[in-house]
From TrEMBL:
SUPFAM superfamilies: Outer membrane efflux proteins (OEP). Pfam families: OEP. Residues 1-21 form the signal peptide. Residues 114-132 have a biased composition (Polar residues). It is found in: Cell membrane. This is NodT family efflux transporter outer membrane factor (OMF) lipoprotein. Keywords: Lipoprotein, Membrane, Palmitate, Signal, Transmembrane, Transmembrane beta strand. It is a lipid-anchor. Its main location: membrane. One of its GO terms (cellular component) is plasma membrane. Residues 112-132 are annotated as: Disordered. Belongs to the outer membrane factor (OMF) (TC 1.B.17) family.
Length: 467
């Protein structure tokens, strides 16, 4: 081997040995001041059971909605996760990110090309001859990742795959919460419709009584008109509730990825549903549990890698190439010529483009740091608000349940006294309205507990169960 070739090979080997000289800085998570614990305690209780505090020690559960104990909700959730178009689009974005990462990763590998050519020529002159020439060549090229720029590009691309994966998880979590919320809202509307229809029957019974008394001359036409007004007002609530129920069912259909026409649910009441106690972890667990926070952090990882790649571009590029060409293969007189080349390229002047790319990447990273910190604060707020909502909704439901019982008894007494002639109609009408409002408020308070529980699951990044 001649001296020139030895020097070339030696230079190539040295460049390869220096390939680990990366100029970037490793990613570090931004400092976040997380509270040690949540304010207050989740005084959650299952339907029909005594209240209990939930311990902080808990384990994660992905299918948190199963803790409500509704087979129909389980089926609806499975259909939504399988057919929802927003979720499918988010999944496709993961495929796109993976394909992009694959393209980037390919840039770290050598490239190899194969070429072949052949010619045949014939002379028409006297004693003309025919000649044939053939060549087969192979070339290999490799850019040495001396400063870690290509590794940084690969890291950024793969971090964006993670970001898209967490984005898909965030879409799934919102979808799960929306399906559960719409389902329980539909059940509550069925309960409210049942209450309105029951009260309509009671109001019509009172109207019949008033009309009998009027025909006997025991009351006036004013009382008849007043009770008819009460009947019509109660009756007018039913179409509105039916419309709201239909809207919830059509919303569910869209979440399930199907046309709303003809869609309906089988469940017709919150009665029999199980309201689970929700366990919580310490606030710091949100950094690993919330998909939106993990998505923001993955984008930060990618941005940090972009900075490293931009810095590496400031340094010389080392490229190795080798080729071999064999000629005369067809004729049997083969001749092989090989070459090995190492080249180094350094930008001398680019108008500040490369340095500007570093500055741009740093500014983009700084923006993502602020977005990450904001997402953490929002998550803390959402969990704390949900914890308070669970506690408040539980207390409110208890009070309104008692109020509904008292209102029912008050209406019964007023009705008896009116029939006995010792109570005026206005008192009866007032107690009738109060009963309807109290029973309707009780159902809405019960729904509020389910809604608060769903929001707590969502804000925690999914489900937890006691360990």
């Amino acid at each position: 081997m001649n001296t020139s070739l030895k020097s070339t090979v030696l230079g190539a080997v040295m460049a390869s040995l220096l390939a680990g000289c990366a100029v970037g800085t490793p990613y570090q998570r931004p400092d976040v001041a997380m509270p040690a614990q949540w304010d207050g305690v989740v005084a959650a209780k299952a339907s029909g059971s005594a209240a209990k505090d939930v311990a902080d020690s808990a384990t994660a559960t992905a299918d948190w909605w199963r803790q409500f104990g509704s087979a129909e909700l389980d089926q609806l959730m499975e259909r939504a996760l399988a057919a929802n178009h927003d979720l499918a689009a988010a999944t496709i974005r993961i495929r796109q990110a993976r394909a992009s990462a694959g393209i980037t990763d390919a840039g770290r590998l050598p490239t190899a090309d194969l070429s072949a050519s052949g010619t045949r020529s014939h002379s028409n002159q006297a004693g003309g001859s025919t000649s044939e020439q053939s060549q087969l060549g192979v070339s290999i090229a490799y850019e040495v990742d001396l400063w870690g720029g290509k590794a940084a590009q690969s890291q950024a691309a793969n971090a964006r795959v993670d970001a898209n994966t967490y984005d898909r998880d965030a879409v799934a979590l919102v979808l799960q919460a929306d399906v559960a919320a719409n389902y329980f809202q539909a059940l509550a509307l069925n309960d409210r419709l049942a209450i309105a229809r029951k009260n309509l029957e009671a109001a019509r019974s009172v109207l019949s009584l008033v009309e009998v008394r009027y025909n006997k001359g025991a009351t006036t036409g004013l009382e008849v008109a007043q009770q008819r007004t009460s009947v019509l007002n109660i009756e007018a609530q039913i179409p509105q509730l039916e419309q709201e129920l239909r809207a919830k069912q059509t919303a569910l259909a869209v979440l399930l990825g199907q046309a709303p026409q003809g869609f309906s649910i089988q469940g017709n009441s919150l009665a029999g549903m199980h309201l689970p106690a929700v366990a919580t972890e310490q606030p710091a667990s949100l950094l690993e549990r919330r998909p939106d926070i993990k998505r923001a952090e993955s984008r930060l990882v990618a941005a940090n890698a972009d900075i490293n790649a931009a810095r590496a571009a400031l340094y010389p590029h080392v490229r190795l190439s080798a080729s071999a060409v064999a000629s005369g293969i067809v004729t049997g007189g083969s001749n092989v010529v090989g070459s090995l080349l190492a080249s180094l390229t350094q930008s001398l002047f680019d108008g500040g483009r490369l340095r500007g790319q570093v500055d741009l990447s740093q500014a983009q990273r700084d923006e993502l740091v602020e977005q990450y910190l904001q997402s953490v604060l929002v998550s803390l707020k959402e969990v704390q608000d949900s914890l308070h909502a669970v506690t408040t909704a539980q207390a409110r439901q208890g009070l309104l349940t008692d109020a509904a019982s008292e209102a029912k008894e008050a209406f019964r007494i007023a009705n008896v006294r009116y029939q006995a002639g010792s109570q005026d109609l206005l008192t009866l009408l007032d107690s009738q309205r109060t009963q309807l409002q109290a029973e309707d408020s009780r159902v809405q308070a019960e729904l509020a507990r389910y809604t608060a529980t769903i929001n707590l699951y969502k804000s925690l990044g999914g489900g937890w169960k006691s360990a």
